[in-house]
Write a structure and sequence with these properties.
Largest sheet: 3 strands, antiparallel
Order of helices and strands: HHHHHHHHHHHHHHHEEHEEE
Structural class: mainly alpha
Strand order of the largest sheet: 2-1-5
Number of helices: 16
Helix content: 55-70%
Shape: flat
Distance between the termini: 42 Å
Radius of gyration: 33 Å
Number of domains: 3
Bound molecules: zinc ion
Length: 384
Amino acid sequence: MDAIQAEFDRLNNKSNLSKAVTDIDKCIALLENARNQIAQEPSSRGMTLARLQQSVNSQLEKVGGDHKEVYTALNRYGKALDKKFKAASAFSSSDYDALSNEGHLINRAIAMHLIREGQFTVASKFVQEAGDLDIPPELQDEFVEMYQILKAMKEQRDLDPAIAWARQKARQLEQRGSNLEFDLCKLQFVAMFVNGMDGRKHAMEYARREFGRFQDKHLKEVQMLMTAFLYTDNLQQSPYGRPFLEPEKTWEDVAHSFTKEFCSLLGLSAQSPLYLAATAGAIALPTLLKMTSIMKEKKTEWTSQNELPVEIPLPPSYHFHSIFVCPVSKDQTTEENPPMMLPCGHVIALESLQRLARSGSAPSLKCPYCPKESTLAQAKQVII
Ligand SMILES: [Zn+2]
């Protein structure tokens, strides 16, 4: 990377670009001066213009020289980049063709990303120019609502819109096992409580009015919150004082879980898939480039579909679910070929199991890992 950095520094160097800018500024100043002079003394017009021509010419020559330097540096920078990333040419043109066939899907992913990031004007322009992307029009309205609620939360510290939303969606949230409504009300209570004497009075009223309905599920947490009234002046000493002492973090956490729940009710993940995929791709790129150059050297091909021949470690936040690799076929299980558990507790992929059933003395089949026998019907699908 050193060569690129050196060229970039040269390109960025003050002596190049800023010199060109200063020289152009000088040129403009000359012209402006001459204009003022002529305005003041119209009779001196001829002389001023003659002088102006000379100085402007010499100044423009300087600008030309400056530009030449910038262009040379730019050229060298481009060459350094090409040299460094020569491996990128290892991707064949058919790879690019395959990508452009998926153009529709990629455009859709970009449009979805823009909508969920709240870039609504850019998104609608993009959709308009990209043609029919099959994005339900009400989706944007949903995200507009989400950003309005988040804005109220973050900028005005107003939880009412979020609480109203959570109440409206209470049944769906309950089905998901989400505690969002309670978390929002809890934060409302905390925000009131830390707001002086009056605040504490309001918090008490709020708790009496709202917390009753959370008794079944969150009684213990409500009790913990209530102990704050015993520690009004020394919350640091309270074993349950944490929510009151780290308000910033609590606001952030609640905003995050609101976003997550909102997206999941729309059937979407909390983070933009395009962003995740692009970041994961950027992390994987050096390994992939190395792999393609090795494959080229050894004249081998990458044959396994939907699977990489090398392992690419991603940070833990990029692990979403566990994978299962069948110990018999060494294939990663899929929806069509799910992991199946035999009555003995050993797990293999469905296809391996079917093969086993065909080869053995039907209807019984023997587990490949222990002596126990069972039947195909006894195997149960494992949901990971
Ligand atoms: Zn077994």
